[in-house]
Description:
single chain; alpha/beta
Amino acid sequence: MSSAPLEGLRVIDFTRVLAGPHCTKALRDLGAQVTKIEPPSGDLGRVSLPHIGDMGLYYVQQNAGKRNLSIDLNWAEAREIVIDLCRNADVIVENFRPGTLKRFGLAYEDVRAFNPKVVYASLSGYGQTTSWRNRPAFAPTVQAETGLTAIVEEHFGNALSEPRGDACSHADVYTGLQGVIAILAALNHRSRTGEGQHVDVSMAATMLSVNERAGAQLSGIDTDGEPIALSANESHIFELSDGRRLTIAGSPIYSPMFSRYCAMMRRNDLLADPRYATAKLRRQNLPSLLAEIRSWLTTFSDLELLQAQVSEAGLAVGRVRTVREFAESEWVKEWGAVVEVEDRAGNTTRMPGNPWHFSESELPLPGVPAFQGEHNEEILRENNVPDSRITDLQQRKVLLSRRSPVGAYD
């Protein structure tokens, strides 16, 4: 096995909370050396619950393995130090509101002047140059603006006592991953041309690009009762006689799926049932159709036998599990999908592992989450800052170093 795919890549990480840290964590886990620049107030993720010792597990998940320099950029000498770090960077990632780093002389135009080969990625809600660029952007608001919340509301209909958005921060996570894709593309461009460039990644544009139903919704075409986009969003939850819950991918309302459901149950008689002759009728008579499926499911006590019959009809079935239940599955152990990470309190904590296996590259081991400013001295010495100056910066609190985040767990 050879070294990790991104070994030797130097990344300066100005990001905080989720979209940016998720991006740079992926780069780190692919072998890059990531140096996180953290302000004195600290990354908000550090105080997110739950926590072990002095570590918020939200922060651990997104930042383990990164080196940490905590420095106050309001000081001119701090800016000089960070600018020197950026001189040798291959990649810089930031997810502030557009224009924030310009105030510190660290915008792309500033860095390009002394490091023209740098790949500089900016992750923001609405991009760097649009009329919405200065709007604050968090996952729930971007998801509301771009249609996801409306999809969720339509999906649940009257099943909720009050309207709710999605439970996960998709806009942040997907934007982080789109940032990785764009950075790798820009690095490939640099390897061919020698040119660095600025990569502008928008959360709002990301949410449109990852919405597999967007094309159908934008068309405005009436599907006459048929679910759109292969009906995945109308997959139902069923319960076996022993209480285990499962879902079968695809809605029986959707005509191609209805025939598969009938084949799965070996009930071709339902194909001729006038109640289910069209998608509109199947939607109107959905309770009776679901009752047929539920009745059939009660004949199974062995999930493997059920899975075989479902697969035979070209459908897929999956158990409804919690994350903790899934972590105990044999598959998770086989893949290494959950790993033990040092919690900095004398023990380890479980975290998601890598989603990739490489045939010819060896990925780094799970990283250790850094305390704020843990690598201040190491990073500055590498940058030829004398010990006397480091001590002076520490005494004047230009450099910060602490185990517990500000205001944590009050």
